[in-house]
Design goal:
With about 325 residues, this protein is of the alpha/beta class. About 30% of the residues lie in helices and about 15% in strands. It is built from nine helices and twelve strands. The strands form three sheets. It has an eight-stranded parallel beta sheet, sandwiched between helices. A two-stranded antiparallel sheet has the order 2-3. A two-stranded antiparallel sheet has the order 11-12. A hairpin with a 4-residue loop joins strand 2 and strand 3.
């Protein structure tokens, strides 16, 4: 008996796309689930984040009216989950780098679903090989600037420190640092710029200043604890006073329009530490990152038809300019 697999089986991929819409050869984006949380030091469970994000994505609309983008038409390939390397976080960083390198051909967007923030180091190492002008937009409630933490330089508390050894890092959302980290942010090396976060409107960093410190090719690394715990409590180390959804969308929109997003990660979702809405919010964020990157990037993008086409006409931004400079709206 022949079974029509498309008749009633739910595809286990982001957005539950059909085989045609998720085909690797024609997909404009690739998502790599990385269920790893070996160095977590407070609430564990980020290893369950990728599966929760993918499951929640089944309930997203394929079309986004703000971006005028249908991601099912662009094509997204979701890989199998990357197996954790139990030799230690440095070995896992090398494994992530190898995985990202195998999918990063310079023409498709590659995103990671975490998992703990340490995986970003491997992704940036791999992408830097093709992009000498790469920089990282690093969104996190914590500085992550320790050189070593709990006897490893690859702890989740050391990620930004390792990244700035690879390329320029611009931090936004930081509101919890050690004394040593604070001193470093006030006297930073050339590859580091930290915009400490204060949610009072008069004390928000100017978006234009953030953009001015990013290079043309940008990797966006998002620890979900950058968001306020009232919106995102399901993280390992929640920190009050964070970004709201409008702040985050304004920032992503600005970077996508004025720079080129070449890769990203969304990490530190611990789904058992909060309501199911957190996984849905994380999935929506992944959608927005992919949609913004594909809608605004100038480079030709693959379509699931197999043809190479120019990106769609950039839609008008829902976030207007503030006095000729980019503001939070």
């Amino acid at each position: 008996m022949t079974v029509d697999e498309g008749a009633f089986w739910v595809p286990n991929n982001f957005l539950a796309l059909t085989p045609e819409q998720s085909d690797l050869e024609t997909a404009a984006a690739v998502l790599i689930p990385v269920p790893y949380d070996s160095t977590t030091s407070y609430r564990t469970g980020a290893r369950y984040g990728p599966a929760a994000i993918i499951s929640a994505s089944y309930n997203l609309e394929d079309y986004d009216h703000e971006l005028d983008v249908d991601l099912s038409q662009a094509g997204i390939h979701t890989t199998a989950a990357l197996e954790p390397h139990m030799a230690g976080p440095d070995a896992m960083v090398r494994r992530v780098a190898q995985a990202v390198e195998s999918y990063d051909d310079g023409g498709r967007l590659v995103g990671l679903l975490g998992g703990e923030h340490t995986i970003a180091v491997g992704a940036v190492r791999a992408m830097k090989q093709r992009r000498p002008d790469l920089s990282v937009l690093y969104l996190d409630a914590h500085g992550d600037l320790r050189d070593i933490y709990m006897d490893t330089p690859y702890s989740h508390a050391c990620v930004a420190r390792r990244l700035m050894e690879i390329c320029p890092v611009v931090q936004v959302g930081v509101r919890s640092v050690s004394r040593e980290e604070f001193v470093l942010t006030q006297n930073p090396p050339p590859n580091l710029q930290t915009f400490l976060w204060n949610a009072e409107a008069s004390r928000l960093p100017n978006l234009q200043d953030v953009l001015d410190r990013l290079t043309q090719d940008v990797y966006v690394s998002i620890d979900l604890d950058a968001l306020d715990p009232s919106l995102m409590p399901a993280v390992g180390t929640p920190e009050p006073g964070g970004m709201d959804w409008a702040h985050l969308m304004r920032l992503i929109d600005s970077v996508a329009r004025h720079r080129r997003i070449v890769g990203f990660d969304v990490v530190e979702l611990s789904p058992n530490e909060g309501p199911h809405a957190c996984a849905y919010t994380a999935a929506r964020l992944v959608y927005k990152l992919i949609g913004s990157a594909l809608a605004h990037n100038r480079a030709p993008l693959r379509q699931h038809t197999g043809a190479v086409q120019e990106p769609p006409t950039t839609p008008s931004s829902p976030f207007p300019l503030d006095g000729g400079r980019l503001g939070w709206g």
